Amino acid sequence: MNAITIASLDTKALALRLHDLAGEERAIQVDFLLHLDEFDRRRAYLEEGYGSLWDWCLRSLHLRECAAGLRIAAMRVLRKFPRLEPALRDGRLCMSTLTLLGQVLTEENADELLARATYGTKAEVDSLVASVKPRPAPADGVRRLPVPRPATAAAPTAVPPDGPAPAPGLTVAVPPGPQSGERPDPLASDLAPAVAPAASCHGVPAAEMRAVSGDRWSLRVSIDRDLKDELETLTMLLSHVLPRGDLAAVLREAIRCGIEKHGKRKGAVEAARRRSARPQAPEAGRNPRAIPIEVRRAVWRRDGGRCTWTTPDGRRCDSRWQLEFDHVESPLIGGRSTVENVRLRCRGHNLLYAEEVYGREHMDRFRREGRMVPNG
């Protein structure tokens, strides 16, 4: 199907075609794993002149390290539990979630864990695995990242890791700063260093939040020098009320303050005390887009802090990302900022509705000019 044919499809047909392609892709992936299993059983990579299946995948199939490791790991789990093949084909599991489940799967619990992991995200399945087999939580700590080396062409690892990666701790990794004349780091000395952040597939330390048990998570994130200094300052300010070296408690306090500040503005958090009523501005002098804080709070409660956009068949978006208050009837045509006329929408669906009302060309011009959405 060429680009012209694809562009001619209406949205419904395009969505159906993508569903078909996703199914075909899953089928091809499963067939690949089955063929890879047979290739590995025969040790055919030796006949091809490679020392390991890993080496053959990288140098013959030209897969990258992450892709090769994922496929080999998924193949080995599928080899032990072939009855999971249908779940891979219909999308209940993917290679990532299958590989995670492989850490705790047994013949006795396979059916139960499959039911609990069905259509779960990678993070959800990882949390499920941790609830079955809790991981040791590394010590909190702040450590300096090593100075990056110049990029060199390194040979690929001979054998991929078969087991899970070490669980990251609540680690704040700081890029290297001045090496001479530097004052001691109170946080680094007070808190035990944790494991070093593992690099992503692209070699960059990635932020990660990972379950270590059913109700506990470890956090790993890289920050710059300024944020590290601010974290240290907050730790010192809280030193009279928090245990020494409790980095999680410091972050909790910072997050709570952030939620309170931005939650009040969004209407997601009730004010601790109500301010005395101020004289209301005359209706004619108000910004028609302005939404009173009492309306924001009521709308947030009513909509559950989630996007209310709904498909024709009744499926609601429910996103919590980049939520915006949207007027059902635009203020430009007389819509008022009342609870009944305001709803929560994620930014994407707010823009979609604006395009339906004003047209895509009109909205594209607004976006190019960096202006706000006309519908408010």
Q: How do the strands line up in the largest sheet?
A: 1-2-4-3
Determine the fraction of residues in helical runs and give it as a percent range.
Answer: 40-55%
Strand and helix order: HHHHHHHHHEEHEEHHHEEHH
Strand content: 5-15%
Helix count equals: 15
Structure classification: alpha/beta
Radius of gyration: 27 Å
Question: In summary, what is this structure?
Answer:
The protein has 376 residues and is an alpha/beta fold.
Provide structural commentary.
The chain has helices at 3-8, 11-41, 44-47, 53-59, 65-80, 85-89, 95-101, 110-117, 122-132, 186-190, 225-237, 247-266, 293-303, 347-358, 360-368; strands spanning 141-144, 171-174, 208-211, 217-222, 323-327, 342-346. It contains 15 helices and six strands. Among the domains are: 3-132, no CATH class; 287-368. It has 376 residues and is α/β, with parallel strands linked by helices. The radius of gyration is 27 Å and the shape is globular. Residues 152-169 and 177-199 have low confidence and may be disordered. The chain has a four-stranded mixed sheet with strand order 1-2-4-3. Strands 5-6 form a two-stranded antiparallel ribbon. Helix 5 packs across helix 7, helix 7 (95-101) packs parallel to helix 9 (122-132) and helix 14 crosses helix 15 (360-368). The two termini are 40 Å apart.
